[in-house]
Structure formats: structure tokens, C-alpha cells
């Protein structure tokens, strides 16, 4: 009998908490939101995500502030979510590399279970470029040199175990060539190295577009299902005989346990922000397209991608030792 007051009090507190949660979601956000992105300032990810964040901030009534956290193959923002409060005020870009992390690095969190997937927003268009004065006029020239000089052809990417790195290694495996990989923290650094002659080639998203249009780089191939409108003379990997399409979708995640009402508020705001002409124009600058997935569909994408990426990691022999 003595426990009844306690039980009544506990029940009352639980009811109060349940009543407060929707109210919190209705008032969210009451302060600026931080969006951590995986690549440095000045590159295509930074430019497009800042446009999206600016649009979302206007819709939410609070600024969405972009913080650049490059390195570790684009996985640092997702790792940062693991220590952030689950209140919707810390968000992260989730590049494809996050879904490979458990196979290549020892981590104490699960890329599927320990992130609240908010919305997928776009994906990259990729390709391989060389300096304009390179002797490689075509992909056939590139392959011929690599076969004659195993391990001597240097190429850069936006980081170890990123999609540009792994896809290039898969292409090299299929082509029977050996390349020397040089990782960079992002497109801006990689482009500088390329145009200054430090590298023979680069694998990147179409952050290389301004340099190509300026006559400083040449595109040897692109990685989509069809040729890019901006580079109609560059063949796809499929046209070159490799059954590979890579567009590396990415979106936004929040910490595990973020209230569903807050996730929905964020989802709705970013979905509307995706439809703004300024964001569509920013994507078009790099031949990127809006690629919307709802919170539920993005979660399912994460589950499926973790399984698919294991196949790629195993095929390239890059899995961490047990």
C-alpha cells in the first residue's frame, strides 16, 4: 500500500512527458541548427549543401549553420553524431563511405542502427580527369600507359575508401592495371594538385567542372548511367566495357533517438528546401540532381547499402583483419 503514491506519481510524470514531446516538436527549433558536412569549403558538396541549409533555415525560422569536417573518407560527421545530443540541433551529411566503415575500421557503433535517417537529398556525378596537357587523350591511352608502367600512374581522390577511390580501384581491377592512389581531403585540394601538375589523374565528383570549362583539365570518362550533358564527349564506364554505375547518393542524418516529431519537422523543411530554385541551380552547376528519399525510404536505403558495400569491400580485399 505504501507504494501507491509513488506509482501514481510515476504514471503522472510519464503522462506529462508524453504530452510535452509533441509540444517540443511544435516549437522546434528554438536555436540555430548545426549541419556537419564531410568535405572542405569551396567544393561541390560545400556549395550545394550551403544552399540547401540556407533554404532550410528560412523555412525552419532558425539558421542552419554548416560546419566542414573533412577527412577519414567522409565519415567524421556521422561519427560526430554518436556523441551529440539527440535533440535535432546537430545534423550530419551521410556519404556512402559511412556504410563501408564497419568493414574497414574498428568502430563501436552501427551505421544503420545508430543514426536517425532524416532525408536523402542528392548524389554525385563522377569521372576521371587529367591535366589538359596530359598525353592521355582518351581512356585507352590511360590504360595503355598503366599497363606498360605498373604502379607508376598516380591518381588522386577525395579520400581513402571514398566512392571515387573504390570505384577507380574496381575499374583498375577490371582493366588489369595497377595505379598509385593519393588521397586528399576534398575536391578543392585535389583540383589544386591536378592543375599544378602534382598528379597524373584525378577521380572526383564533377567539382572538376569549372577547371574543365577553363581548359585546365580533360575528362576521360564519367560514371553515370548515361553521358553528362555538360561533357557529351566523355564516355561512360558502361560504354567503355565496365558494368559499373556510381552516383553515390547522400543525405542528412541525426543522432539515434532523435524524437520522431523532430525528425519529421526536419524532413519536411529540407524537402521543401530541395525544391527551391537556388538549390536546384547549385546542383546543376555540378551535374547533380535532386534525389529525394523520405526518412523511411532513406533508412531502408541504409540497410540495403550496408549489405551491398560489403560485397565491394570484399572484392577489393580491403576488409579489416578480424
Describe this structure in words.
The protein is of the alpha/beta class and 322 residues long. The protein contains eleven helices and eleven strands. The strands form two sheets. The protein has a six-stranded mixed β-sheet. The protein has a five-stranded mixed β-sheet with strand order 7-6-8-5-9. Helix 6 crosses helix 11. The N and C termini lie far apart (55 Å).
Describe this protein with a few key phrases.
five-stranded mixed sheet; 41% helix; six-stranded mixed sheet; D-Maltodextrin-Binding Protein, domain 2; 2 domains; alpha/beta; globular; 11 helices; disordered N terminus; 322 residues
- Report strand %: 15-25%
CATH architecture term of the largest domain: 3-Layer(aba) Sandwich
* Helix content, binned percent: 40-55%
- Determine the CATH topology of the largest domain: D-Maltodextrin-Binding Protein, domain 2
Count all strands and give the number. Answer: 11
Structural class: alpha/beta
Question: What characterizes the major β-sheet?
Answer: 6 strands, mixed
Considering the protein shown, what is the CATH homologous superfamily of the largest domain? Bordetella uptake gene, domain 1
Tell me, rounded to a whole number, the average pLDDT. 92
Ranges where pLDDT stays below 50 over 5 or more residues in a row are 1-8, 10-14, 17-21
> Regarding CATH, which class of the largest domain?
Alpha Beta
- Give, in order, the helices and strands: HEHEHEHEEHEHEHEHEEHHEH
Cα(first) to Cα(last) distance is 55 Å
Output the number of helix runs: 11
Amino acid at each position: 500500500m505504501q507504494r501507491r503514491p509513488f506509482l501514481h506519481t510515476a504514471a503522472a510524470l510519464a503522462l506529462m512527458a508524453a504530452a510535452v514531446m509533441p509540444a517540443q516538436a511544435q516549437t522546434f527549433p528554438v536555436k540555430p541548427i548545426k549541419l556537419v558536412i564531410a568535405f572542405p569549403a569551396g567544393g561541390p558538396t560545400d556549395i550545394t549543401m550551403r544552399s540547401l541549409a540556407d533554404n532550410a533555415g528560412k523555412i525552419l525560422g532558425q539558421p542552419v549553420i554548416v560546419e566542414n569536417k573533412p577527412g577519414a573518407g567522409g565519415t567524421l560527421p556521422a561519427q560526430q553524431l554518436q556523441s551529440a545530443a539527440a535533440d535535432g540541433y546537430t545534423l550530419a551529411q551521410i556519404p556512402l563511405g559511412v556504410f563501408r566503415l564497419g568493414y574497414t575500421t574498428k568502430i563501436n557503433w552501427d551505421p544503420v542502427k545508430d543514426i536517425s535517417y532524416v532525408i536523402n537529398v542528392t548524389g554525385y556525378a563522377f569521372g576521371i580527369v587529367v591535366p589538359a596537357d596530359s598525353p592521355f587523350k582518351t581512356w585507352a591511352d590511360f590504360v595503355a600507359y598503366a599497363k606498360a608502367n605498373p604502379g607508376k600512374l598516380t591518381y588522386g581522390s577525395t579520400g581513402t575508401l571514398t566512392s571515387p577511390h573504390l570505384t577507380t580501384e574496381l575499374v583498375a581491377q577490371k582493366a588489369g592495371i595497377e595505379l598509385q592512389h593519393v588521397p586528399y581531403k576534398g575536391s578543392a585540394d585535389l583540383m589544386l594538385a591536378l592543375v599544378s601538375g602534382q598528379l597524373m589523374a584525378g577521380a572526383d565528383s564533377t567539382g572538376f567542372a569549372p577547371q574543365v570549362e577553363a581548359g585546365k583539365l580533360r575528362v576521360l570518362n564519367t560514371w553515370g548511367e548515361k553521358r553528362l550533358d555538360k561533357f557529351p564527349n566523355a564516355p561512360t564506364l558502361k560504354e567503355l566495357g565496365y558494368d559499373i554505375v556510381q552516383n553515390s547518393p547522400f543525405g542528412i542524418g541525426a543522432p539515434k533517438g532523435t524524437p520522431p516529431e523532430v525528425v519529421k519537422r526536419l524532413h519536411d523543411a529540407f524537402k521543401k528546401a530541395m525544391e527551391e530554385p537556388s538549390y536546384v541551380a547549385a546542383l546543376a552547376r555540378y551535374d547533380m540532381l535532386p534525389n529525394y528519399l523520405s526518412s523511411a525510404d532513406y533508412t531502408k536505403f541504409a540497410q540495403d547499402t550496408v549489405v551491398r558495400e560489403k560485397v565491394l569491400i570484399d572484392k577489393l580485399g580491403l576488409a579489416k583483419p578480424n
